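Question: does this match?
>
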Amino acid sequence: MPQPRWISRSTLVVAGLFAAAALTACGSDTSPAPTGSSSSTTGSATATSAGKTTSAPTTTLEISDASATQLCDMIRPELSNWRVQGPTLGRIGLNALVHEWALRNGGINGHVLADKAMIDRITTKSCADVHQQAIEALELPDLASGIAF
């Protein structure tokens, strides 16, 4: 059955983001983590118990060279769109793109949200030119600043 014309790819991406957020919030993500050892990231989770805030390190996440290249390849063609759309719409596009990439790579959205700077580390290492152009087009100090949920 064909999709109605009003359902676009971006609509499906946004729906997927909400589904991923729900899975992450519920802690029911059972997807395996991507393999490889191109880039490793760590983050920390904060928990509040009886009014006290504690910080617990999360596990190290290994991002393969293929996954890093995939992220760069997803960002590269969007650069011209972000320049034309402007930083406000471009930031929405970046957010959707990063979460789509995370879903494709084992549903690691929770890791990305816990350590948004991992996107900067991955792109700086794998495609520094794309990283810099994205920062300029989106008028951000770093890509992590453009990731909202």
